[in-house]
Predict the structure of Aryl-alcohol dehydrogenase-like predicted oxidoreductase.
Amino acid sequence: MTAEFIKIEGIPKPASRIALGTWAMGGFMWGGPDDANAAKTIDKALDVGINLIDTAPVYGFGHSEEILGKALEGRRDRVVLATKVGLDWQDGHVFRDSRKARIEAELDASLKRLRTDHIDLYQVHWPDPKTPFEETARALEKSVQSGKVRALGLSNFSPEQMDEFRKFAPVAAIQPPYNLFEREIEKDVLPYAVSNNLVVLAYGPLCRGLLSGKMTADHVFTGDDLRKVDPKFQQPRFAQYLNAVEGLKTIAEQHGKSLLALAIRWVLDRGPTIALWGARKPEQITGVQDAFGWTLSKDDMAAIDAILDKAITDPVGPEFMAPPARA
Ligand code: NAP
């Protein structure tokens, strides 16, 4: 089965509905980088039909973009390249900054690290409460006019914030958290995307590995791995999510699929979505084709909801990941 594609307004090449997420490749908050495996993963992604790759300057403080720039040398045209803007860092501490000067400096730094003259999708990583959206939007609109950027996206924005931003610059896509266990966007963000013709790049479709089917209660997270502080991975709540995983596996088995394929398919069947699969080893994405070419029925969706409702009595979202405003 070949990949499924979706059009993002302003970007000539249709994007694959499974994208490679490169946060973990940067190493920071994921227990350290492994550049050789990261490069092989990018090769593998292209081999299995993925053409959209998502990164950000903050992933490894430039490292993820550097790996990507090096790996794509000579074949940049094959991919739809998405990166972000609007976070800064000092001594390992990340904070929001979407002022005009930061955007201009960051864009040139990203282009250099990515070894390209343009970014296909340029996304504001988090809304900056200390900068008017007009300032950010106008600076970004200028980057589109200059040809350095093809299309704009907004990540982690509410509908009200998107409305305000879109008064000053057109937006083609959004990037919220979305997976079987994190469904907040169904209340307002997803309907907003549908009615405003925005493509949804769903981040964390495997819920940071919980939906890989490989996670066990005795798994030990080491180093700076963010799951040491992720509330979903702390007992007694962790057990609830692992119970839900066992239930979801039965639905996957009915389709002859892995849990991982089910988790990705579920995201793809919920709207104009792209699943941002986070991988850093080539073998992790060998199963991409299993998520394409089938769909979940209404009955499957209802059965899934029943499993989640029963197993997860104390749900929690991904809010712990939000970076602070600048001091
Ligand atoms: P994810 O894709 O839900 O999960 C990644 C996790 O899944 C990793 O722990 C990885 O394991 C595991 N995994 C992947 N393939 C696997 C396989 N075949 N078998 C077993 N385990 C597998 O989470 P994510 O990386 O947090 O999110 C994906 C992407 O979304 C990021 O890379 C980034 O591009 C984007 N993102 C954006 C934001 C934002 O604010 N805009 C926030 C978060 C993420 P290992 O740990 O063993 O590698």
About this structure: The chain has a mean pLDDT of 96. Residues 21-24, 54, 125, 155-156, 175, 203-209, 212, 214, 260, 276-280, 284, 287 surround NAP (CB under 6 Å). Residues 5-211+259-295 form a domain with the TIM Barrel fold (CATH 3.20.20.100). The first helix runs from residue 23 to 26.
